[in-house]
Amino acid sequence: MREKIAIGTAAAAAALLANNLYQMFMVLPDEALQGAIYRILFFHAPAALVGMIGYFVALTFSILYLSSKNFLHDSLAASVVEVSLVFSVVNLVTGSIWARVIWGIWWTWDARLTSALVCVLIFFGYLVMRRAIEEPTQRARLSSALCIFGCVDVVIVYKSIDWFRTQHPGPVLDFRTGGGKMDPAMAHIFWLNFLAILLVAVALVLVRTRQESTAREIDSLRRLAHTAA
Amino acid sequence: MDARNFTFMFYGFLAAWLIVMLYVIVLARRGARLKKELDAVKKIASHPEQHADRR
After folding, report:
1. How many Å apart are CA A61 and CA A115, to the nearest integer?
2. Dihedral angle of Cα B34, B38, B44, B46, to the nearest 10 degrees
3. ipTM of the complex model
4. Scanning A28, A101, A202, B45, which has the fewest C-beta atoms within 10 Å of its C-beta?
5. At A166, phi and psi to the nearest 5?
6. What is this structure's pTM?
7. What is the residue extent of each domain of chain A?
8. Quick check: A200 contacting B, CB < 8 Å?
9. Across the strands, what pairs with A75?
10. A25 interfaces chain B, CB cutoff of 8 Å
11. CB A65 within 8 A of CB A144
12. Under an 8 A CB cutoff, do A89 and B19 touch?
């Protein structure tokens, strides 16, 4: 059942992405100041938003694990963090490529970029730590604590363009500015692409959680076989 | 349209999808490994005495 939902979600994402790509290249004009390169925004910012949403979903599962000690919540948190990390990396790489053309540099240590990099490093560390700790209870408890710590940085990433003067552009999305910063036609495609990328992330999380439950099944069968022997 | 501008836009799109596709490949490989491992453990769990004798 879960596989069918994952396939259905991925198919919906693919159809939506095909439509969005057509709209981006065939319907929307180039941006007046940036030219064609502004289209990176349609992947760069949705990838960041999907990553941030994912980290907060993982935070919810981590808190649920700490209150219930149910390993299912820990597995769900780990799955969501892994997929969110992929989208955070997409965000950093596409942003860097955009910056090379618009700013003339690949990278700068401003508050937004630096906090986003720290966020990627924290959650990469989360995944590395999980592999390093054998004992499941200790692994789940420390992972939950690190996830909570990491989400503090996610808030800093989100608010950094309000709190600090950054090289990174300020907020442009309607829900942060009250409107008027982005052309409605561009905003429409932006949100459609956000939905498509969110669907891709959901499909990946479904596949990843299936693998986590298989790993738990293997562990319990191993214990069973060991006891019987 | 500035050609360099268009080239970098292409690199951006390519990088985004390459990263996602790499992750999909990693997931697929991990899924295949887990399936193999599950089959092996199921075999051991169904006949634990045979595997105990081999130790």
Report:
1. 23
2. 180
3. 0.90
4. A28
5. -120, 160
6. 0.91
7. 2-29+36-212
8. yes
9. none
10. no
11. yes
12. yes
